[in-house]
Amino acid sequence: MNRSVLERLLEGNSRQISLINSLQEAYSLEVRGVELHCQPLQLSTVVNSVLCDLEPLATQNRVLVKNQVNNNLPLVNADAIQLRRVFSNLIGNALKHNPHEITLTLDAIAQEKKILCRVQDNGVGMSKKQCVRVFELYTRGEKARFMPGLGLGLYVCKQIITAHGGKIGVTSHIGAGTTFWFTLPLE
């Protein structure tokens, strides 16, 4: 067997294992919910870490990233690992579902007893119908049939933010970009 065929088989196998693990996680979330290990946390630390991990993909897609999450925000009481998953998913989706050379802006502001976080892009946007369903289990974008995945990422984000006592939502218009937002209670 030729080496490239073997490599493609191994990649396909890895994708299948990843999909199976995702299905298992979705089932677990439905049955047990999200398990949190919360502690006082500086949001900018999490955001900087995620951006560092996703920098190669952002560079490859020639994305201008504007990180406006301030280092002097009040602390949130959150699970750092789960919060990383939320930011990774929201940023990753913006990179995956948009053309190259978009602008991606991250910001967070303190409001009363919570912090409002936003991940905003100036990409292709979504219809109102997509916005209504985007956090449902197994919901995928209109062009997602050409991409691997099961439509679990935003569902998982909603479960994580809800477990923290926050809310999550999206605003978008076709051709005018998308803004995902979520709230987290202050520490």
What does this 3D model show about the protein?
There is one protein chain. The protein has 2 domains: 1-32; 37-185, Heat Shock Protein 90. It contains 5 helices and 7 strands, in the order αβαββαββααββ. It has helices at residues 3-32, 43-60, 80-96, 128-133, 153-163, and strands spanning 39-41, 64-68, 76-78, 103-111, 114-121, 168-172, 178-185. The strands form 2 sheets. Strands 2-4-5-7-6 form a 5-stranded mixed β-sheet. A hairpin with a 5-residue loop joins β6 (168-172) and β7 (178-185). α2 packs parallel to α3. It catalyses: ATP + protein L-histidine = ADP + protein N-phospho-L-histidine. This is histidine kinase.
Quick overview of this protein structure:
With 187 residues, this protein is α+β, with helices and mostly antiparallel strands. The chain has helices spanning 3-32, 43-60, 80-96, 128-133, 153-163, and strands at 39-41, 64-68, 76-78, 103-111, 114-121, 168-172, 178-185.
